[in-house]
Amino acid sequence: MTNPPxxxxxxxxxxxxxxxxxxxxxxxxxxxxxxxxxxxxxxIRRPAELQGLDGLIVPGGESTAIDKLARAFDLAxxxxxxxxxxxxxxxxxxxMILLADEIADPATDLAGEPQxxxxxxDITVRRNAFGRQRESFETDLDxxxxxxxxxxxxxxxxxxxxxxxxxxxxxxxxxxxxAQVEPADPAHASHAATLPGTARIVAVRSGHLxxxxxHPEVTGEKRVHELFIRMIRGEA
Length: 236
Description:
The chain is 21% helix and 25% strand. The protein has 6 helices and 12 strands. The protein has helices at 27-36, 63-72, 76-84, 94-99, 189-192, 223-233, and strands at residues 17-21, 40-44, 55-58, 89-92, 100-103, 121-126, 137-141, 158-162, 167-171, 176-181, 200-206, 209-212.
């Protein structure tokens, strides 16, 4: 689908139809985020609803539940096919796990079968890597690719909220690292003691795919969604 160039930042998504996988998780927050950018947000639950999309968001939630429901609703294979065909997709938190080609610690079902992903990103992720719910934290990140938001003072950091978030343990040669959490940051001291001197990758991009470990949709941080929209338009 050919899309016109973006206009003012508040309407950068004008003319676009962006789906949000609405099987489980915080899909409503993502729908509000794309609609605030001027795009038409569409909840996706059936394969037929994938038609005519300019892009898709896989939200945060439970990656195992989304995996099971996607297969139950016959969405998993069509999603894999659309991703391979070049559909722009953004995954946040659980969405990052579901876009990864490999999970370091996959959950298993009652039959002992490991959870599946939609794939597309040549990365290895670790689930719940920063700890459980009580170890959720917030921090500011230097985030590549947001030059469109620069002011005279430069590009402001992204305020990120991590809720049982994954991190990336391996990136393939075609994957760009956009942001990392530094272990010296006191905002996440709960896990820093076990990870001395190790920065953890929390945002990546590869071609038409974008993923973050954190939830910009819950903080009002609009620039990650704007970056995704600009990727859809071929402007980033």
